Amino acid sequence: MTKYIAAIDQGTTSTRCILFDKNGRVVSTAQKEHRQIFPQPGWVEHDPLEIWQNTQEVIKKALILAEVKKGDIAAIGITNQRETTLVWNKETGQPFYNAIVWQDTRTKAICDRLSENDGLDRFREKVGLPLTTYFSGPKIKWILENVEGVRKAAEEGKAVFGNIDTWLIWQLTGGASGGAYVTDVTNASRTMLMDLSSLNWDENILNLFDFPPEMLPSIVPSSDPLAWGKTKLNGPFADEIPVCGDLGDQQAAMVGQACFNEGEGKNTYGTGCFMLLNTGNQIIQSKSGLLTTVGYKIGKSDAVYALEGSVAITGALVQWLRDNLGLITSSSEVETLAKSVPDNGGIYFVPAFSGLFAPYWRSDARGVIVGLTRYINKGHFARAALEATAYQTCELLDAMKKDSNVTLKTLKVDGGMVVNELLMQFQADMLCVPVVRPKVTETTALGAAYAAGLATGYWNDTDELIANWQVDKTWYPQMDEKQRKSLYNNWLKAVQKSLNWIE
Fold first, then answer.
1. How far apart are the C-alpha atoms of 115 and 217, rounded to whole Å?
2. Cα–Cα distance between 234 and 251 in angstroms, integer?
3. For residue range 332-361, what is the model confidence (pLDDT) as tens digits?
4. What is the pTM assigned to this prediction?
5. For 90, which of 15, 268, 437, 468 is 20 to 30 Å away at the CA?
């Protein structure tokens, strides 16, 4: 009997279910978008019940498309948009408030308050993260302080927190009727509440944030042979299948790209842009504005750590050109429009719509377009939007070199934007290293599948996963050094114009 692994990939804009076979190839996929809710400038929310409903629908559709029979699914892995925070009633399953998305900046005042005496790096030595609006901890605090009844429910043990992985695992394994209440080490490392060394919630930080510890899930490995529970017979899988893989989306992409050796790195081009460098079992504290995070933990093996550079807006900028300006009618048109001009015409687009992430961590920044003349047309806008992604990636790689002294020889890439060949060539030109796209570009979902498959013995070890990885296309640098430096220096000047917009 042929067996498959199911991966649920719950992202910022949509939810997918993808079935993979033994070779790591896609057997079937189903996808559904969810609403983006913007109550105020800088606020971004999702409806958790809509996400759960969409999850059930894409699971059923993926199974139908693959003509899967009962018992054909060996295990389930989850990967998710990280830091997106929700609090719900564990007795009823009802959220107390919408999920607050990772891009949301409403917690700036909380972060300022907590960093007032000891600075943004107050907790960095323990958690590897600066005090910014990006992470889950300040979002939980905002909900406790601003949503009526949540504080009381938390003290009574009824209100529980989870990132999206926790919410979906809880729902899949029974919900209010005994669902597993867990999060893996990668997602826990994005809360500002977990000690990177012990892999436990830090009591001192919990006290400073004023959180009842009972509202936090148990921390588990990313790939767990014990499983956390099984799907219910009345659920979307209509069978009892072990749920035993869980990785935050960027760590999942690193696993899906088979970056299992120290010094290997990947970059994911999605709503935002996220570059991870495997640092092995070593926790490297960044001095260059990067994040120190858990890469993955397989069963009882030691945790593997990573340096991460995070950019808030990359693919979302293309969506903005489509939805807000109407320059294109579909995201795929941006490459054609950008190719209508030979260069950017001298304009630079810094998409600091919700501040700047790595390496700046400036929530006071806002988006700017500089260098405008009457020569500029919509083709230049499209080209500058794509180039912004490549420039921001260059800044991440520069920071990684400073922190780790590791020089990448190639960059493995994945995510929705890697089909854009103009962008990939420009990225290779700006980095001065080959950019490599794998044959299976669904690496985020594949990483979640790998985590679940390793836990159940579907795959024996990471060597088997490395053997699955195959190159689809490689882009080599073609730009001369003088031109590259000129473009990059102009970009750095443009970034400075985006700062200090919010008092």
1. 26
2. 31
3. 899 999 999 999 999 999 999 888 888 888
4. 0.85
5. 15
